[in-house]
Design a protein that fits this description.
heterodimer; A: 6-stranded mixed sheet; 0% helix; B: 116 residues; 7-stranded mixed sheet; globular
Chain lengths: 110, 116
């Protein structure tokens, strides 16, 4: 199958670091993407990992381990504006298909 | 550069009525996707177009849903007749091609459909 699992919600305080984990099924798996979606907004692309290891983009980093069928999104120096839903999305069939997880709602508290 | 444009942003209809959603992708993007997002869930692919050809419509409920992408640019998604369970946000996305370096898809703001 092709499904992804992630926690439904996470709460953290401003300035902290939070990690959102994602596990996926491997059949046809090609890579792992992360998207951010604010309430009522469009999903926006954050990162993509095709190879094992860490990808860093500013305050956000994403990690993939193919041997463990696992990835995570790391958000550092949390800001109030980071409160949103975060979706891991598996890229399947060599790029032809995105399968989204159910999303993790991140609440950043003062 | 203009993003993906969708209209209408909101639509309220009664069950059994028809409804249509329109999407204009980013200029030059050959690949267009329609997704449905239920409340508290991730987007689910309904159909993917490469230019004017529907290359993946396996998740499209074909008894009531139809889509077209004439001339390989704009696209329309239709539901006829709508059911209560169709209430959701319908998202359109586009990409230069499905095999681009980061596989990034660019999403529009969506159409929030409420079926009463």
């Amino acid at each position: 199958g092709q499904s992804l699992e992630q926690p439904s919600e996470v709460t953290a305080v401003e300035g902290a670091i939070v990690q959102i984990n994602c596990t996926y099924q491997t059949s046809g798996f090609y890579g792992l993407s992360w998207y951010q979606q604010h309430d009522g907004g469009a999903p926006t692309f954050l990162s993509y990992n095709a190879l094992d290891g860490l990808e860093e983009t500013g305050r956000f980093s994403s990690f993939l381990s193919r041997s463990d069928s696992y990835g995570y999104l790391l958000l550092q120096e949390l800001q109030m504006k980071d409160s949103a839903s975060y979706f891991c999305a598996g890229v399947y069939n060599q790029g032809g298909k995105l399968i989204f997880g159910q999303g993790t709602e991140l609440s950043v508290k003062p | 550069e203009a993003g993906v444009v969708q209209s209408p942003r909101y639509k309220i209809i009664e069950k059994k009525q028809p409804v249509a959603f329109w999407c204009n992708p980013i200029s030059g993007h050959n690949t267009l996707y329609w997704y449905r997002q239920n409340l508290g869930q991730g987007p689910e692919l309904l159909i993917r177009y490469e230019n004017e050809e529907a290359v993946d419509d396996s998740q499209l409920p074909k008894d009531r849903f139809s889509a077209e992408r004439l001339k390989g640019v704009d696209s329309t998604l239709k539901i006829q007749p709508a059911e209560l369970g169709d209430s959701a946000v319908y998202l359109c996305a586009s990409s230069p091609n499905p095999f681009s370096k980061d596989n990034e898809q660019f999403f529009g703001p969506g159409t929030r459909l409420t079926v009463l």
